[in-house]
From TrEMBL:
<keyword id="KW-0963">Cytoplasm</keyword>
<protein>
    <recommendedName>
        <fullName>tRNA threonylcarbamoyladenosine biosynthesis protein TsaE</fullName>
    </recommendedName>
</protein>
<dbReference type="InterPro" id="IPR027417">
    <property type="entry name" value="P-loop_NTPase"/>
</dbReference>
<dbReference type="InterPro" id="IPR003442">
    <property type="entry name" value="T6A_TsaE"/>
</dbReference>
<comment type="similarity">
    <text>Belongs to the TsaE family.</text>
</comment>
<keyword id="KW-0067">ATP-binding</keyword>
<keyword id="KW-0547">Nucleotide-binding</keyword>
<keyword id="KW-0460">Magnesium</keyword>
<dbReference type="GO" id="GO:0002949">
    <property type="term" value="P:tRNA threonylcarbamoyladenosine modification"/>
</dbReference>
<keyword id="KW-0479">Metal-binding</keyword>
<keyword id="KW-0819">tRNA processing</keyword>
<dbReference type="Pfam" id="PF02367">
    <property type="entry name" value="TsaE"/>
</dbReference>
<dbReference type="GO" id="GO:0005524">
    <property type="term" value="F:ATP binding"/>
</dbReference>
<dbReference type="GO" id="GO:0046872">
    <property type="term" value="F:metal ion binding"/>
</dbReference>
<dbReference type="GO" id="GO:0005737">
    <property type="term" value="C:cytoplasm"/>
</dbReference>
Length: 157
């Protein structure tokens, strides 16, 4: 099953992220897939808000550090693996501590490390439609997807 939604501007993507963020819980892995500038970081900023990360943190892609960590209702580990060629570098840095720890892991460019993304992950794909619109497609194990879909519907998406 896939939940497909249309975001008509960056503000909507933030709100979609916030709603999803409120549904996230300890141990969740969110794999973000999509081309440059399609809204992965924007959605992550919304998820941070939904996870209760303080607005005093400016959530941005962890380009030089690979991973940023933000305290919230659950710790948010924000990874951006754009510069990696595969999962080997992550294995060397002990990614299991994040993926299988108590926080929530959100990974931009997750398609680069598909071999270590578990089947239980929530996968969110972005497609550029025009300057302001994006198609956002969410897939997850049935129960999680139902929960997220109904929260999104209640929020008007
Ligand atoms: N509907 C939309 N949702 C999200 N972003 C949008 C939307 N419409 C326009 N934008 C713009 O697209 C850009 C998305 O940037 P963002 O950094 O979130 O992309 P990204 O997928 O993380 O890119 P990168 O691959 O470089 O990390 C922003 O400048 C934002 O204002
Ligand atoms: Mg980004």
């Amino acid at each position: 099953m896939i939940k497909s939604i249309l975001s008509r501007n960056a503000g909507e993507t933030l709100r979609i992220g916030e709603i999803i963020g409120r549904c996230l819980t300890t141990g969740d892995i969110v794999a973000l897939i999509g081309d440059l500038g399609t809204g992965k970081t924007c959605l992550t900023q919304g998820m941070a808000r939904g996870l209760g990360v303080s607005d005093s943190y400016a959530v941005a892609s962890p380009t030089f550090t690979l991973i940023n960590e933000y305290p919230g209702r659950h710790v948010l580990y924000h990874l951006d693996v754009y510069r990696l060629t595969g999962s080997k570098d992550l294995e060397e840095m002990g990614y299991e501590e994040y993926f299988y720890g108590r926080g929530v892991s959100v990974i931009e460019w997750a398609e680069k490390i598909v071999d270590i993304i578990p089947e239980t992950a929530i996968t969110i794909s972005f497609t550029y439609l025009d300057e302001n619109s994006r198609r956002i497609e969410i897939s997850a194990p049935d129960k999680r997807l139902e929960e997220i879909s109904s929260a999104l519907s209640e929020g008007g998406f």
